[in-house]
Fold this protein.
Amino acid sequence: MSKQDIKTEEKFMNHNAWFSIFMGVTLLIISVYPMLKQTSAPLLFIGGSAFLGSFFMFVIRGGFTWKLGYRLTYKDEFLNTIDTIAYKHVVLGLLFSMGAIFLLSNELALNVSHSMMATFYLALMSLIYGVSILWQSRD
């Protein structure tokens, strides 16, 4: 594998991490907004605009290229290790957050809907994945 291919895959992984962070923040806003405003009526509009905003921020940052297709694994073994460790962090974060939600379920039962919790879990998984990849590939 050439050095150029490795650099291209590192850049692709970095863009995936930033996109995961943008999507995590977007989904976190969508999941928390109804609790703050006590309504879920404008959720579709706010969610759509937040998604488009985060996507355009990703495009402006230079993360979208037509040349790189989506791949499940990377050719470089070191990048595969980083990706696998990031998925392990996602699973651990999800398990800990589900445990915390289970312990706080009596207080949250009246205020939080199932869709809000599902969106919260997706936001948490996206944020953990993106931060884990950025944290591991910072050198």
Observations:
- The first helix runs from residue 3 to 37.
